[in-house]
Amino acid sequence: MLYVVTGATGNTGSIVAAELMKAGKKVRVIGREKAKLEKFPGAEIVEGSVTDAEMMKRAFQGATAAYVMIPPNFATQNFRKHQDEVTDSLTDALASNGVSYAVTLSSVGANHASGVGPINGLYYMEQQLDAIPDLNTLHLRAGFFMENIFGSLSLIKKMGIYGSATPPEYGWPLVATRDIGAYAARRLSALDLKGKAHQYLLGPREVTGPEAAQILGKAFDMENLPYIQFSIADMKKGMTDAGMSEGMAALYCELYEGASKGLLDYSRDAESNTPTSFEWFTENVLAPAFKAMPA
């Protein structure tokens, strides 16, 4: 029984591949750089882009199950086009090879066809994969990655503030990517998927901007770190100044506007409450990185 893991060098895919191999599964890993894939000794390695439809069809030959995700491409001017190209490539590969099971990395808000920026591409992905008749799908609708806070460390270090474009009372479901990978690997290993389904993965609780600032400030030895609500225009300028393409920045602005309008809706259950707390993640992952940054 063969498992295919896309994005195997990423935050979630690397966990999925490692956990499946630890469980004694036969794994084929896909990624853009062969050297990085070699950290999975014993796995079959496929080097290439998930947008290469013919390569992907070959990569999925003989597979029973797969972990599927759309890798980021922050440099592209048209990320939605990139997302749809990846989805079409993956859909063709899964359907033409008769793969029976797929777990995908999706997001809260993927139940909306519009209004949530890059998450609209995950709506399209879910719809396309669910249209494959004999494929059992489980879409992991994850909350906001705790790892995304790495993008705010420079702002905190240089300006002494933490902020985003959502109101201070807005609570984000913060989830660690290691918990997503572990959950995906467990469900793939069990192969208990049936039909077309989704599962929210949301972390232990919602965290507001001011709460996050308090947690970050305590771990960074910056008591009373303030939370600032940025305007959408200021947020877009900050992203493009940091090197993000105009098109990608516009999508993220739409995402934050959609969040403020309540479009990142979800429901919690026992499965959705993942174990890693934001306090633990900040103290053990973010704080060492922050303190190693030059002043």
Layout of strands and helices, then pairs:
Elements (H helix, E strand, L loop, with lengths): L1 E4 L7 H10 L3 E6 L2 H4 L6 E4 L5 H7 L3 E6 L10 H18 L4 E7 L11 H12 L5 E7 L1 E2 L7 H7 L2 E3 L6 E5 L1 H14 L5 E6 L4 E3 H11 L7 E3 L2 H10 L4 H15 L17 H15 L3
Parallel strand pairs: 1-2, 1-4, 2-3, 4-5, 5-6, 6-10, 7-9, 8-12
Antiparallel strand pairs: 9-11
Helix pairs in contact: 1-7, 3-4, 4-5, 8-11, 9-10
Brief synopsis:
This protein has helices spanning 13-22, 34-37, 53-59, 79-96, 119-130, 153-159, 177-190, 209-219, 232-241, 246-260, 278-292; strands spanning 2-5, 26-31, 44-47, 63-68, 101-107, 136-142, 144-145, 162-164, 171-175, 196-201, 206-208, 227-229.
